[in-house]
Please model this.
Amino acid sequence: MRPIQMVDTKTQYLHIKKEVDAAIHEVLDTAAYINGKPVQSFTAALSSYLNVKHTIPCANGTDALQIAMMALDLQPGDEVITPSFTYIATTEVVALLKLTPVFVEVDPKTFCIDPDAVKKAITPKTKAIVPVHLYGHAAPMEEIMQIAKEHNLYVIEDNAQAIGCDYTFSDGTTKKTGTIGTIGATSFYPSKNLGAFGDGGAIFTNDDELAHKMKMIANHGQQKRYYHEVVGCNSRLDSIQAAVLNIKLQHLDAYNKARQAVAAHYNQAFANHSAITTPYVAAYSTHVYHQYTLQLNGVDRDKLSEYLATQKIPSMIYYPVPGHQQDMFASFGLPDIQLDVTDQLTSAVISLPIHTEMDEEQLNFISSQVLNFINQ
Model:
């Protein structure tokens, strides 16, 4: 059996090696390392794939979120509602811009932001909601957008883990996650469903004025060289990463289907086991399984992880410490809050290997070892 990895980016590369190598060499031959043709072609291709009017490439997913918030002119003290159960980048940018994070609960099934919790958290200082499409499953965007409309709030979608996911509205129309809110942001970190060979990110919007402003912010606040209209930053997707992403974008749907096949195998193996809750998929969402995350019931999660390691099976905890308990927010003077669902999830979730290159032998072994530990 091949060694099991959480993510096998090398084998994925080998399947498209000829195309990727040729694209990289073309960049080397032209020596247009910054804002070369691959950046422009990838941006256009991604806009077409997502059916969104504007795609602004940038250096990473964290920058994408920061640029989005800067473009919306959010001011120090403005409140931004976000789930606590997410990666720190989502709220880190809130802190960097001296905004006030307002942590709310997530749905215990989907792990995504709870609309009822959002409603209760809104105050006169609230300016934006940041739903996170966690693990590859869409947040309840129709409800979130309705809440935002009623209270005149911006919606910034954190789509770093769900690119390619489809959201179906109650009227039957479908949109890709990241294209529903005021602005969407994503990451092209190598382990993502659409991953570069280094860092990268992008921002999406259908708003012409916001797109114009975000392009300027990402480029030192300028549209004409040396004439800086707004305070910006330096956040670019380089030509080599764009060249790689342009190739991989053509395979994204196939990659997501491969992840879904892995998840289906796990789901069948763990079906109806009282100690295991497999990932839930809401009627409004597809699931592209950036992570395959189980909830354990009455099982020592850490000992399971240790056991799997002895069998050379990697596993991960996403995430062991929620945002509202992070030391970095201690100086913000935030009120003490109790998020029972979030706290329960941080102690009960475990993510198993999932990627595009897994084979049946690996999946059978992983599943059997999880069950072996739980049933002993």
User: Anything to note?
Assistant: The first strand starts at residue 54 and ends at 58. The longest helix spans residues 252-270.
